[in-house]
Each structure stands twice: as C-alpha cells, then as structure tokens.
Amino acid sequence: MGRPSKKAERTEQILQALQRCVARYGLEGSTLERIAEEAGLQRSLLRHFAGNRNELVQQLADRVIAQSDQQWAEFINDLPEKNVTTALLDGLFTEDNSDAEFILVIESLIFAAGQDEPLRIKMQGWMHRFTNDMKTILLRDNQSVEDEHLDAIAFGLVSIYFNLDSLAPLNMSAQYRPSARRAAELLINTLNPATNKPCKHIRS
After folding, report:
1. What fold is seen in the domain 1-51?
2. 175-184: per-residue pLDDT in tens?
3. Into which CATH architecture does domain 63-204 fall?
4. Which residue from 77, 106, 105 is spatially nearest to 91, judged by alpha carbons?
5. Mean predicted confidence (pLDDT) in 190-203
6. Distance CA 12, CA 43 (A)
7. What does the DSSP 8-state code read for residue 194?
8. Which of 97, 94, 83 lies closest to 202 in space, CA to CA?
9. What is the pTM for the complete model shown?
C-alpha cells in the first residue's frame, strides 16, 4: 500500500484537531483560528486541504460516524451469543471503555444538525443504527419480549450511555457511573423480571 498523499495526511491532521476542539469548545466555539492552532497549521491551509467550514463539519461527521460504526461492530462481534447482559453493561459503563471526547463531539454534531439538513440525515442514520443494534443485542436473550418493549429498553440504554459521559465537563462522570450502570441493569431486568437476576455491579 502506498504512502497517503500529503493532502490526505493534512486533512486527517485537520480533522483530528477539529475533533479535539469540538470536544473542548463545542462546534460553535471551534473557530478556524482554534482549529489551525490545534493542528499546528496556518489558517489559510485549512481551506486548502479540507475545504470551507461547512465542508469541515460534514467531513468530521463522516469521520466520527465511521469510527463509531467500526468500534461498535467490533464490540458486538465480541459479545457472547447468549447471556449478553453483563458483557453489554461492561462495554457501555466500565470506565476503561468510556470515551467522553467522542460523546461530546457526537452531541455537538446532533445539536448542530437542527440547522443543517445533510448533517441531520447523517446523524439520524447513525442514531437509528445504534439503537437498532442495541435492540438486536437485547433480543438474543429475550426472544419472546414484545417489540415495543425492546424498543423502549434499547432507547433507554442509549440515553443513559450518552447522558453519562456528557457530564465529563463537570467532572461528574465517575461519580454517576455506578448509578448509570445500575439504572441500565434495572431497565434490562424489566424484560424478564421473573427470571433475570441482577448483574454484578459496582456500588457507589
């Protein structure tokens, strides 16, 4: 495989810098000056290698979504076929698996999508895939549960997952991580309360 072109290398450098800036300052606060400083490049080179601001945002969304899809696919592939609850909760709520920067970037893109239709379509597709995959995982151990119930639990797990790391700027994610995991566990247990036993969890 040949070496990436200078343009590809510079574009990746700029997008990495943009992602760090968005996690730190939000999308609106990620000015071209801040992005250039973070990337160690002159501002004029941003447009040359990565396009205008709107093009930068679209490329960032593509980059983050691709990273998320790949990591999520690998996570699902490593889950057991049955008795997936503990492994699922570990993957979602163990501190070692936490990625607050990613969550903050995703939330910034979702917020910006309200005024950007192409971005909204991308983020809607990503959210649908994530929630549907969560439902498919839950279905492994809950074949007889009503579809509507599975939809609700899948959405609840996704919501808890995102809300937890959104507390990172307040330095409160670690404080609420055990409670978030416990809340997710209680939700899952409603799928089959007669047979589901509480999973091991870390008490606060």
Report:
1. Arc Repressor Mutant, subunit A (1.10.10)
2. 999 999 999 9
3. Orthogonal Bundle (1.10)
4. 77
5. 57
6. 15
7. T
8. 94
9. 0.83
